[in-house]
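BUG: 3D viewer hangs when loading the predicted structure for this chain

Environment: internal workstation, default settings.
Expected: structure renders.
Actual: progress bar stalls at 90%.

Input used:
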Amino acid sequence: MPHQRLESILAGRLRELDEQGTRKGRETVIDRVIEPSFTWGPRYVLLDDPNRPYIRMNSNGYLGLALDRRVREAEDRAVKRYGTGPGAVRFISGTWSPHKELEARLAAFHQRDAAMIYSSAYATVMGVLPPLVTDQTVVISDELNHNCIINATRLAQPKQKRIYRHLDMAELDRQLAEAAGDCVRAIIVTDGIFSMRGDHAPLDQICAIAEKHDSAFPENVIVIVDDSHGVGAFGETGRGTEEYVKATGVDLLVATLGKAFGVNGGYVVGARPFIDYLRETSPFYVYSNPITPAEAAAAKTAIDIVDSPSGQKLLDHLRAMTRRFEKGLADLGFETIPGEHPVVPLMVRDTAKTAALIAHLRAGGVLATGLNYPVVPKGDEEIRFQISADHTPGDIDEVLGILASFEA
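Structure tokens produced before the viewer hung:
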């Protein structure tokens, strides 16, 4: 059936995105990886540029575990034993022993009663929030929360949806008090690490505010945190924002296996009644295949590594490389938002200059990501650099040298 009218509308919308400068455009395709040496970290070869190796400064793989021999070997062994896919959703016949072993390991790692895995962290948030929202629930959310939280709240259709200014605890406190007379259940939902800026939520204060108002809600105040960029990369032992701020009282913690742990999938941990209820009611879990048994085995190995002396060395090196890069940016006169998380934003505050700087980095053999409006507010245009434990001092200094040669 011809669809010329709709195709014309869609083509027009794409032209609008081009004119606004917000179209993502053609994707970069990585074709192969050059293994690291003693001096240099891994280099990445692109499909359309096969003769040039690139430094990757825009990866969520904060610990470099996707290339770790132990993780790869665990996945290889599991593929040989279980095959390449689960073959069904969990409640039919798609639950394999590596899935259960991984869930037990995640619960222990986070010191929770239980855990359940999803196909991704995005699917986890989409699958966790709506089943816990009723027509008498208020959802209160930080204004810079990730798109998955925004869409999950829309899907949930709470009685009230409230947004507080970024990290404004006084406004969160006020909004929770205002909702108490109209709603019987409250859910505070926030990112742990805000991925565009690398700053973190004060979870200790959020949990204290939730406890302060809990008695005003017959069905409690629940705190849900998506710490996908924090777990494995933040906190003394990699347990994320909770550990960094010494928070207690987070009811449900969502995170990913696809960033610091280097594999694929998402998960939630919490008290067993929450997890058992979500297994029965969460459509993104019930009606979707899980990650493969091999991915689950690889993820468990990655967690074991993080929770070991070698993992501590990776975390220590990651922090050292982050400090080195931040200091280098400051020495060059660039504006950044300092912090211990390996997301290091270079604040450009101009769309055209951001594009020019990204092109300059690319010409120098560096893969980096520029963020322009409407992904970030006007005036907050930036380059989001992401440091990894597989970066070496030589890698960091090479990138800084390329930045130093930029002429605006």
